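In this section we walk through a basic example: taking a raw amino acid sequence and producing a predicted 3D structure, encoded as discrete structure tokens. The instruction is simple. Fold the sequence below.
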Amino acid sequence: METDEQMANEMVGTMSKFWWIWLLMGIAWVIISLVVLRFTSASITTVGIVVGIFFLVVGVQEFVMSYVAESWKWVWVIFGILFIAAGIISLAYPKNAFSQIASVLGFIFLLVGIFWIVQSLAEKGTNELWWFGLIAGILLIILAFWTAGQFFITKAYTLLVFAGIFALIHGVMDIVRSFQIRKIGKTME
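The resulting token sequence is shown next.
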């Protein structure tokens, strides 16, 4: 019977072979964030499309995690399915997607913040920078409660700004995670 530490080492060993995927995804998220942060209020359709692409990219990333992870595979698969479905709907109806996402922005931030916190705590034993994800998750939950109390127009502008910030934080987290995974993989050789 394998111990938790042996299982974690095997998972990290497997993940370390694919460290470059997190690096590429992180760079892509940073580029997307730069594009989103340049939008004006007149580009609602474009933002709806970009949000759809966000969801698709995150969905694919979650499926990659389900392939690599030894435990909690079902969580990665469920989030992957949800993000892919949201991406398809957003691409089919980008103006409606923008409007609906702005309406429930606080709830979305809350869910993502909780997910980031859980993910950072799950990585605590294998990633020395796990606290970065924890702090980002806590900040996103604080933002969720602030956003929930705003009017729609404020939420729409908040969506424009924070979609870019979300992508930037996600990108930086993936880049940091990629080098941590690579470093741990090299020490295990």
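Looking at the output, two observations stand out. The chain has a mean pLDDT of 83. Residues 26-34+42-180 form one domain. In the next section we compare this with other chains.
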